[in-house]
Every structure is written in structure tokens, then in C-alpha cells.
Design goal:
By secondary structure, the protein is α/β, with parallel strands linked by helices. It contains 17 helices and 20 strands. Helix 1 runs parallel beside helix 15. The longest helix has 21 residues. The chain starts with 7 loop residues before the first strand and ends with a strand. The structure holds flavin-adenine dinucleotide. Flavin-adenine dinucleotide binds next to helix 1, helix 2 and helix 15.
Amino acid sequence: MAGATQDFDAVVIGAGFSGMYMLKSLRDKLGLKVRVYEAGETVGGTWYWNRYPGARCDSDSYIYCFTFDKQLLQEWEWTERYPEQPEILRYLEHVAERHDLKRDMQFNTRVTGAEFDEKSNLWRVRTDKGESVTARYLVAAVGSLSHTNMPQFKGLQSFKGKWYHTSRFPHAGVDFTNKRVGVVGTGATAVQAIPEIAQQAKQLIVFQRTANYCVPARNGKVDPDLVKARKADYDGIVERIRDSFFGQEHYFIPKSALEATPEEREREFDKRWDAGGFGFWLGNYEDMFFNKEANDLCADYLKRKIRRTVKDPVVAEKLIPNDYAYGTKRQPLDTNYYETFNKDSVLLVDAKADGGIEEITEKGIRAGGKEYELDIIVFATGFDAMTGPLKALNLRGRGGRTLDKEWAHGPHTYLGISVAGFPNLFTITGPQSPSVLSNMPVSIEQHVDWVTDCIAHMRKSGKTVIDALPQAQEQWVAHVNETVSETLMTSANSWYMSANIPGKPRAFLPYLGPEGVGGYRKKCDEVAANGYEGFELK
Ligand SMILES: Cc1cc2nc3c(=O)[nH]c(=O)nc-3n(C[C@H](O)[C@H](O)[C@H](O)COP(=O)(O)OP(=O)(O)OC[C@H]3O[C@@H](n4cnc5c(N)ncnc54)[C@H](O)[C@@H]3O)c2cc1C
């Protein structure tokens, strides 16, 4: 490819929150020629694909949005604390229109491969439409939760009814009226979908592999005075969430749960339970993620709530987690989840205890030696998180290296934004950055701003190639693994630990640094201020 002409300054893959802002930033701040490729038919990413009943964000809407457009923060009115998928998609469409993003986006186009050419220092990017274009920079804005995990159940092809994965739900919706429906999985998605499906279905059978600790969402209209106060204080809010631990306005109680009196603990727990949302998870006693005894006190509170809500004690015990620490799996927020199991039409099958789902049959699902007849199966089985969408890009870096090989034992990145040997590649909210352990728009904007500044710096200083140094990368990997090893996160078989995909190397995927999102931002800024320390620039 020596002497190859350059089609674009940058190719961005994906048109969710990340790709949209990346385009805006590179094009409108730096004047770059950018092409965005998106597999879906429009912008939105997560909010384009996930159309299952009850799909909505769990971050509070006033912070689950872009902050780069201050005017829009004032103008946009969310209808609820946690808006539903169509409303978030409408918001993202509005942003695309407002900033004229679609003219540089090509939809219905999947990137199928990209190679870095060491002579021209350009990426050649190929798509499923047969295109092949070159660009100086390649930005993977492919999302962390975009690669569907569809377990290979024996016999699925023989099923005579209809089946759907929650992340590929039909746009026209699914009518569950008078149907016998099976839901496989009880993660955050299923917790949103199950109460909604149960309202329609004749019978709902939930196949649970791992019980979850749910906390009430307490969705609803937000008090107009609070909305007004937040709008007046948006600068302050943005500053606080950027500096915070999880990109949210939740703060740890600066005390051990073990030091608090039982009455005090109960008061603090009640406060978070009554407020709903992520506060119980992300704003609890500071040792909750570190000390099993402290963690057990939080877990015990939630277990009591389950026992109080679920009328059948046998069902309640099945719904109570017993093999991992609270908070080490993604916190589902629920609206009538536990109450749904009090309905006569809803049955809980503990698929794990009975040896798991054995097979899908013509008529339904066989688990624990019993066949459950179904008209519709909904797979809420999640994603091949974080590394999945990146590996699927079939990238070839220096010397033809691949992520499959480089990441054979788990991800190796520098700051979660770059991979040694893959020059001029940037991964927005990539593995080993705070990503899924934060309110993601905060982390997305931080990465996009950092990449934009980095490219601006390169152009100003006449550099054309940036590559992470292997040594800096290994230090980062060691730091990520060391910090998480001090927490309880590594003890769970969670998707954070890559444990939901058979054969996926066990590794903690995001970064849970000692100072969270704020500390990570400081670290990235220091790297830049020190002349992109840990990178080679040529
Ligand atoms: C159901 C659900 C609820 C969530 N709720 C929250 C929440 O409450 N708070 C929160 O912070 N986060 C939440 N998330 C995480 C959510 O993914 C992020 O908040 C955010 O939407 C990510 O934006 P993104 O642009 O990085 O990725 P995505 O929105 O996933 O977009 C990536 C895009 O890249 C495209 N793409 C991938 N590979 C290719 C390819 N090879 N070629 C072309 N296009 C490609 C995909 O089609 C997709 O449209 C949720 C995720 C899910 C699934």
C-alpha cells in the first residue's frame, strides 16, 4: 500500500453515543475528514438495538446524556427519571440532526476488517458492502455491550415457536398476549423485561441461572423544582460527575459498615432503598466492595427485602443469591420484579440447580429433566462484553498481529484506549478503562476529548504515528489487575470477569481504580501533559 492515497483522516466505527461525539469532535473541532460506519440503520447504538419490553437506562436521565452541548442540557426535557429506549433513541436522533452528523455517517454497513500498513502508516478498512478505504486514524466506537451473546443451546433450530434475543428485538415489538413465554436469564435486562412480559403473557416461565440482588428503580416523573435546580446547576453537576468515582452523583459513606451501629446501618440502607437507583450499589459503605463481612451486611438487607416481598418462601429462597458478594455483578434496578413472582401465571425455574438448560426442544425448553412447553422464548443472555466487539473487527496491527492472539489470556491495553502494536487505533471505553463501571456518557466524553487532544497534538507537532509502548501497557495491565484484586469483584462469575462466555479467558474487563473515574481522568491527563508518556510518537 506504499504511496496509497488517504481517503479519510479518520474512520470511526459505530454511531452510538461514542461514535456520534467522536465525529462531532474530530470534524467540528479539528476540521478532519471523517467517515463513520455503522451496522445499524441509524444512530443510537445500544438504544437502536435493545428494544425489548421495559428497556430503559438505569443511570438517572439528567446525567445519562451528552454534556458537551450546554444549550441542549437546558433545552432537553426527559419525561422520566429513567426514560425508555424510544425516548433515548429520539434524543440521540435529535443530537445527530442538531449537529448535522448523518452526512458523514454510512449506515447498514459493518466493518469486517482493518489492517495497519506500516509503509504508509494508514489503516485500510474493509466493510461488508465491499468498500475498502484508508484513514490515518481508526477509532473503535463499537460499544462495550454490543456483541450479542447467544449461547449455543442444543436443539434451538428444532423449536417450532418464535425466539428472540433482547438485543435484537423486532422493531414492531412482540405480542405476548395469550402466549406461553420463556425468559432465559435474570440479569439487568431480564429484570426490566420480566415484569412487562408477565403483564401480557398467559404464562411466563423464567429460567434463572444466577439469582440477582435487585434494588428498586423508583422510576417516575421528576419533581419540576428538582429539574429546574439541576438545570441551574449543570456546570456544577458536570464537574462533580467527572471527578466522581462512578461518573454519578453517588458517594461512598466514609466509614466501614462494621463500625456503624445496626440502627445507623439500617437508616443508611433504608435511605438508599427508598431513594431507588444506583445509590445502594455505588454509594454505600466504603468497604462494601472490599470486605466480605461488610458486604454481607449490605447483602443481608437486600435478602430480607426479597423474603418480605416474595410470598412463596421456596421461590424467595431461589431468588436469593448465595454464591457471590453483593455488587460484584451489574446491579439490576427493578420495577415490580420480585412482585411478579407472586403472580399465579409466573413460574421460576432454577435452571442451574437442576443442571442447567439441557436442550431446546420442538415444544419448548427442557431443564432439570422436565420439558416446559412454550410459544415464545426470549433470550436475555447479554453480551460478549468489551472485548467481543473489538475482536470481531478482525484488526491486523504491526506485523499482522491480531487481537485474538494478543488477548488470548485477556485484554492487554494501555489506559484502555490503545493497544501496543496497533498504531493510531483508539478504543472508546475500551477494556481496562472505567467504561461499564461508570455512567458511560461521562467516560465516553472523557475518551473522545482525550483522543481529540491527542490527534490535535500530533498534527501540531508533525507526528503521524502514535503507538503504546509494550512496557507501559504491561504496567497498566498489572495496575488494573492489582487494584481489582484488592476488591471482591474477582470472586464472582460475572460478565465483568468474562465468566458468562464459555472459553473466554477469565479476566476483569473494566478498570476499577482506587480513585475511580476522576482518578482515571487525572491519570490520562497526566500522560498527555507529559508528552504522551508511555506512547511512542513519530
Ligand atoms: C440494555 C442496556 C442498558 C444500558 N443502560 C445503561 C445505563 O443506564 N447507564 C450507562 O451508563 N450505560 C448503560 N448501558 C451501556 C450503554 O451501552 C452505554 O451507555 C452507551 O450507550 C454506549 O455507547 P457506545 O456508542 O459506546 O456503544 P453502543 O451504543 O453499543 O454503539 C456501538 C455501535 O457500534 C456499532 N458497531 C459495532 N461493531 C461494528 C462494526 N464492526 N461495524 C459497524 N458498526 C459496528 C453497533 O452496531 C453499535 O450501534 C446500557 C446498555 C444496555 C445494553
